[in-house]
Amino acid sequence: MTARFTVTARVLAVLAAFSATNPRLTLTEISRRTGLPLTTTHRLVGELAAWGALERAGDGRYRIGLRLWEVGSLAPRSLGLRESAMPFLEDLYEVTRENVQLAVLDGTEVVYVERLSARSAVSVITRVGGRLPLHATGVGLVLLAHSPPELQERVLAGPLRRYTRKTICRPDELRRMLADVRRTGVAISDGQIELVSLSVAAPVRGPGGEVVAAVSVVVPAPETHPATNPLSYVPAVRAAARGISRALGHS
Amino acid sequence: MTARFTVTARVLAVLAAFSATNPRLTLTEISRRTGLPLTTTHRLVGELAAWGALERAGDGRYRIGLRLWEVGSLAPRSLGLRESAMPFLEDLYEVTRENVQLAVLDGTEVVYVERLSARSAVSVITRVGGRLPLHATGVGLVLLAHSPPELQERVLAGPLRRYTRKTICRPDELRRMLADVRRTGVAISDGQIELVSLSVAAPVRGPGGEVVAAVSVVVPAPETHPATNPLSYVPAVRAAARGISRALGHS
DNA sequence: GACGGCCCTTCCGCTGAGCGGAAGGATGGT
DNA sequence: ACCATCCTTCCGCTCAGCGGAAGGGCCGTC
Fold first, then answer.
1. Is the pLDDT score of A16 beyond 70?
2. What are the phi and psi torsion angles at B206 (to 5°)?
3. Model pLDDT, residue A119
């Protein structure tokens, strides 16, 4: 039988077999999910485990290992960014007592790099290291609004997935929203992922003024909490974004 | 020429070429650090970059990519643990206003999984994703004290690296400290890594009662700040450790 | 302009690292 | 005992991976 692809690609396929919904897998499950023969999987997994990229627990299942996370933590766009942003995220968390999030753009999705949550804050489905589409989240809208036109067109070309009845799914509506974000400098996403949540987000800029991340607070939506005034969060989110930008060398 | 080791091992060697002191590398530097011929390095790096494990910036240098961190964030012992611990870390941070850290054991070192720092807190050299030896840090002493005897003997066999004049470097002294940690349930490490810092650490337990992590506060050392009373932090650190343990299913 | 140092990028004949079917084993449930 | 599921080991075969060689780009120095 001919090999389907390179060893490197196979190794990476093994790593990509793990997900938030399938964080622990048997050898056979990894084989199935990757399409690699069991013996091949066995060889690769064995080596990855020896190195620490995968760890095998008492139940015989494999999970992503500490060593992989450790190397991954060197990524400037994740924990490197988080390091610079943390004081300002903490400040924002202090003054709002709500969910605070930091995210970056990757492909056509946002990747959440950090999150600080109060026990009393509205629950959010985001996970550090997790992804969501650009069009439906505060941080995603900020990142999309400031991205190259080609990317914007690509996203606008759809499909724009619906999460709730409030999710922006029409390209013309999204286009207007993006223009508004660029004009006002903040994005307000109300009930687009979950009806109970509203996020206020602002752009974080790098040394050359380019938008490199977005910071947001997620608060109860006015629909379920009439006392919520989204606009009251704008100054604090802006201040946090400016602080982080400064820490990143933006002048 | 005979290959020195497998493709998988080579891929992992490329990833391991990156470190906190060398987070960005040229292709030639990666080749040098791994000992792989330039052409081989070029092939592997190209594929890793295509996948997102490495990212190449405008300066032509490679750095660890977001995708690798993203997969790594699935590791139960890092961000998975952090997720459960975060509320309690935040509480500890609130009540102390000092550095708060969460760490796990790997090999003969601690790996820092999370850190919350106040701007006014004493500076610490630890980095999320970074490592330090077990014998010289509060969290390390906790993890070592509760580790299998073989590991303890291995560490006691040395070498025990010295960081300051206060670092415990004699095996008999360390053995006594470990017994003390087990007896009192907390570790106090005074000026062992930096003379200006003192840490108070306690064990975090998993469902079966096994120690799976350690939580600590790092405060100014009494030597430089005579007003510091380390014992005053013990109850709060203990409470945080208990809270995290409970969240992990320990009863 | 010439030269050297450094950092790539591409090519392609050769061969041994990687492949995976086959065989066998362990465990748990019925 | 049988079956399903999940491994673990073996080994002949072949093509994926190898890396020296060739070539190129960029920058600094003389």
1. yes
2. -90, -170
3. 77
Q: What are phi and psi of B135, to 5 degrees?
A: -75, -15
Give A122 to chain B, closest Cα distance, Å. 14
Distance (Å) from CA B54 to C1' C8? 17
Q: What percent of chain A has pLDDT over 70?
A: 98
Q: What pLDDT does B1 receive?
A: 31
CA of B14 to C1' of C26 (A): 37
Q: Do A23 and B76 make contact, defined as CB atoms within 8 angstroms?
A: yes
B105 to chain A nearest CA, in Å? 10
B63–A78 C-beta distance less than 8 A:
no
Outline where DSSP puts E strands in B12-123.
24-25, 54-56, 62-64, 99-106, 109-116
Query: What would the mean pLDDT of A26-53 be, rounded to a whole number?
Result: 94
Report which of B90, B96, B116, B114 is spatially closest to residue B104, judged by C-alpha positions.
Answer: B114
Q: E strands, B72-210, where?
A: 99-106, 109-116, 131-133, 187-190, 197-205
Treating both helix axes as pointing N-terminal to C-terminal, what angle do A38-51 and A7-16 enclose, rounded to 10 degrees? 80
- The percent of chain A in helix, strand and coil, each rounded to the nearest 5, is 45, 20, 35
Rounded Cα distance between A125 and A114, Å, is 13
Residue B74 has a CB neighbour count (10 Å cut-off) of 24
**For the segment A92-145, what is each residue's pLDDT rounded down to a tens digit?**
999 999 999 999 999 999 999 999 988 777 777 889 999 999 999 999 999 999
List CB contacts (< 8 A) between A63 and chain B.
Answer: 74-76
Q: How far A94 CA sits from the closest chain B CA (Å)?
A: 10
Write down all domains in chain A, each with its CATH number in brackets.
Answer: 7-70 (1.10.10.10), 76-247 (3.30.450.40)
**CA-CA distance, A159 to B14, in Å (whole number)?**
37
Q: Where residue A4 falls among pLDDT bands split at 50, 70, 90?
A: low
pLDDT reading at B4 higher than 90: no
| Nucleotide at minimal C1' distance from the A32 CA | D6
Question: Residue A57's closest chain B neighbor by CA?
Answer: B76
- Closest CA in chain A for residue B106: A66
Please check whether residue A191 is in contact with residue A199, taking contact to mean a CB–CB distance below 8 angstroms. no
What is the ipTM, given to two decimal places? Answer: 0.91
